[in-house]
Write a structure and sequence with these properties.
Strand order of the largest sheet: 5-2-1-6-7-8-11-12
Oligomer: single chain
Helix content: 40-55%
Radius of gyration: 20 Å
Number of domains: 2
CATH topology of the largest domain: Rossmann fold
Distance between the termini: 54 Å
Length: about 350
């Protein structure tokens, strides 16, 4: 019971993010089922469960698992969609008949996917989550949580009512959670850090600590963030600092060498905090899968064009990673020298 509201939840996509979310919620007694389209993974979750290791401790939970929305026989209060972004619209459309009229659809993707979701389910039902933890799918289908943090959730329409507040209480089973009225600005804050870390990891093929040990990587990191911050200003978003450490607005204040040195020191701290992490874009390349670079640097470039803001570094990186994704180039630390300012 949360704020007087008992919620029945369905989660679609039990990968690293979805699997972590479902396991922690189920462990704390919340009513949550899973849709997992991959038959082998679905069967594992039914019979063996999902086991989490890492930053949140060790936890194992089994679930009722469906392999398609067509198998559902009841209505849910909340649908959490934790698939890749390019599946979001189709999944939301298929789930519409299985969510109550006053239910909530929660997007748990990297990037800003709230418009994709609201275009399908409507702004009154759509909500987003700024994911404040990192996780990696292990070869056996279990999940290693690489870092903790906090979550921020909010409705696309900005309203804070009893249902979104109750859902915030549910999410506290996973991590400390704040309900906000500016979810797109919060998501943009995470988008910037994702665009920096994921793109440089994909360019270099290295984990965060190794890649950010290079001075060129620090310079690229800051320029990606600077361009993205200029774009956010034109979009009218008041983007908050990320994890209280990275205040992006400071990047617009000075070109002085001393100031750049301070900013690079902050990036070094980021590198140490997430040292062994292999970001999701690099994990996708490792598996030979399509990456989400289109909603990271690609999103910044597209919004820059729409609002008349040049984003040359983000555009170079976006195009470079698309070539790597298509097998036309390869990841290497040497690629850092190929990005022109």
């Amino acid at each position: 019971m949360n704020g007087g509201i008992l919620m029945k939840i369905i989660l679609v996509g039990a990968g690293s993010i979805g699997g972590t979310t479902a396991t922690m919620l189920k462990e704390k007694g919340h009513n949550i089922d899973i849709i997992e389209a991959n038959h082998e993974r679905a069967e594992k979750i039914r019979t063996e469960g999902i086991t989490l290791t890492g930053a949140l401790g060790t936890h194992t939970q089994k679930f009722t698992v469906y392999e398609s929305p067509d198998e559902l026989t009841e209505l849910y209060d909340v649908c959490i969609i934790a698939t890749k972004y390019f599946a979001l619209a189709a999944v939301a459309d298929k789930m519409l008949p299985h969510v109550k009229a006053d239910g909530i659809f929660m997007s748990m993707q990297n990037g800003i996917c709230t418009k994709i979701l609201s275009d399908v389910v409507g702004t009154d039902k759509a909500a987003g989550c700024m994911i404040g933890f990192g996780a990696t799918m292990l070869p056996n289908g279990d999940v290693n949580v690489t870092s903790g943090g906090e979550l921020k959730i909010g409705r696309v329409n900005g309203k804070i009512d009893s249902k979104i507040t109750a859902l915030g209480e549910v999410y506290k089973a996973l991590l400390p959670t704040k309900v906000v009225d500016n979810i797109d600005a919060q998501l943009y804050s995470k988008l910037i850090i994702n665009s920096c870390i994921n793109s440089i990891a994909a360019l270099t093929g290295e984990c965060v600590g190794v890649m950010l040990s290079a001075d060129e990587a620090k310079s690229i990191f800051l320029e990606i963030a600077r361009e993205a911050t200029y774009v956010s200003k034109k979009m009218g978003l008041k983007v908050p600092p990320y994890a209280t450490v990275l205040n992006y607005n400071l990047l617009l204040l000075s070109e002085a060498n001393w100031f750049k040195a301070i900013c690079k020191a902050v990036v070094t701290i980021v590198g140490k905090k997430f040292g062994d992490v292999r970001p999701s874009t690099l994990q996708s390349l490792d598996r030979g899968e399509k990456t989400e670079i289109d909603i990271f640097n690609g999103y910044i470039v597209k919004q820059g064009k729409e609002y008349g803001v040049p984003t040359p570094v983000n555009e170079q990186i976006w195009n470079f990673i698309k070539r790597i994704e298509n097998g036309e180039d390869r990841s290497s630390m040497d690629n850092l020298k190929k990005i022109k300012f």
